[in-house]
Design goal:
Length: about 400
């Protein structure tokens, strides 16, 4: 009888953040075990919810949200996005604003719109793995440039330069970075854009964590691109506005848009094909961008997110053989396990052992396309009491590994 198999284009596509170890965690929960999930940046389970003003906007507009919207999104929300970026010194027209079911959908749309088989997309290592997966699905080849842990996880400009070829189509910037928590310096962002300018690359700037800054200041890519580097910027409500499940994201295209009419047509076609993004959530975007920015209270000293990330960094650095660069932004830490103390060959198996022994679910470092099995990502969303318990469990597991070595 005929055997049914998955499409060949899925070969090499991974998204281990929700992979086999999470499946194991779900199975453990079905047996009554309680799992501390530190593997995904989902705010609601840890009591971080969307602001009340946004909830009210959602409810108030439900009656007119039954039908499809324009494929690009409702005009008021797109105008709010345009106004927000114009206030940052970014020249964007409302016709070049698109709303999506989170940034994830928009990444997929853009990569499908701009890539052909054989094209190469430069993506940071470590990265948010959706970028690598969607690049592969689009038929292009992901090429990973290294970020330097010894330089605050800023990208290595010379490594980027060395990996540009005649096939390179675009340069991905993830700033603030997931999974490292890095906030790139203005000089680094400028250097990346200068490389894009020199080689005629599109800049794809993932800025979903732009408002979650603990130290330093976020540098928008678009103003530095000017009118001669095509830039597509992505952001949304999921993280700073704690509305992960609402699936409300946006992207804007700036720079020499007149030379990119074909790209705009492709994006428009793909947006038309998916009809529209989640309409009720679209009605909250204007309220979110125009209202009080409650994320500021959470990220300043004394704020919940600031204190949780600070505590986690301190505790992890106190574990023998563990070091971590403190997060300057986003919601994560990317600790290093000294290979001379923890000679881990398979970090997925190591993370599975942690899950089974200590009931803590984290994401292993190679799932973020880091080339060595010596890191893991910790989500620092639980309150300090729960976070302390979780890191103590990780420390206990690592102590057992040291004893067995």
């Amino acid at each position: 009888m005929r055997k049914f198999t998955q499409a060949k284009r899925l070969q090499g596509v991974r998204y281990d953040v929700r992979g086999a170890n999470m499946v194991e965690a779900v199975a453990m929960e079905s047996r009554g075990e309680r799992i501390l999930k530190l593997h995904i940046g989902n705010t609601a389970p840890f009591g971080l919810h969307a602001p009340e003003s946004m909830v009210k906007a959602l409810v108030a507009n439900l009656e007119k949200a039954d039908g499809y919207s324009e494929s690009a999104g409702i005009f008021s929300a797109r105008t709010a996005v345009m106004n927000y970026y114009q206030a940052q010194g970014i020249d964007v027209d409302v016709d070049h604003v698109w709303l999506g079911n989170g940034v994830s959908e928009l990444i997929s749309i853009v990569l499908q719109a701009i890539t052909d088989p054989g094209d190469e997309i430069l993506i940071p290592a470590p990265d948010y793995p959706l970028w690598t997966g969607q690049t592969t699905l689009s038929g292009a080849r992901p090429v990973h440039y290294l970020c330097d842990e010894n330089n605050g996880w800023n990208p290595d400009l010379e490594d980027i330069r060395s990996k540009i070829t005649p096939h390179t189509k675009a340069l991905v910037i993830i700033n603030p970075n997931n999974p490292t928590g890095a906030v790139y310096s203005r000089e680094i962002v400028q250097g990346m854009i200068d490389l894009a300018r020199e080689h005629g690359l599109i800049v794809l700037s993932d800025e979903i964590y732009e408002k979650i800054i603990f130290e330093g200041e976020h540098t928008f890519a678009a103003p530095l691109c000017g009118d001669d580097v095509l830039c597509i910027t992505f952001s949304g409500l999921s993280k700073a506005y704690r509305a992960c499940g609402w699936r409300a994201g946006w992207m804007i295209i700036t720079g020499p848009v007149g030379r990119a009419t074909s790209v705009v047509e492709g994006i428009t076609l793909l947006c038309n094909m998916r009809m529209c993004s989640n309409v009720p959530a679209q009605y909250t975007i204007q309220t979110a961008l125009g209202g009080e920015q409650s994320i500021v209270r959470l990220t300043e000293p004394g704020g919940r997110l600031y204190e949780q990330l600070t505590l986690a960094s301190t505790m992890l650095n106190e574990i023998p053989g563990v070091s971590v660069v403190p997060a300057r932004g986003a919601l994560y830490l990317f600790p290093r396990l000294d290979p001379t103390i923890y000679p881990i060959e398979d970090d997925s198996a190591w993370a599975l052992g942690l899950l089974r022994a200590q009931k803590v679910l984290i994401s292993h470092g190679t799932s973020f396309n880091w080339p060595h099995p010596d890191h893991f990502r910790l989500v620092a969303l639980p309150d300090t009491e729960v976070l302390t318990d979780g890191i103590h469990r990780i420390a206990e597991y690592l102590a057992e590994l040291r004893e067995d070595a």
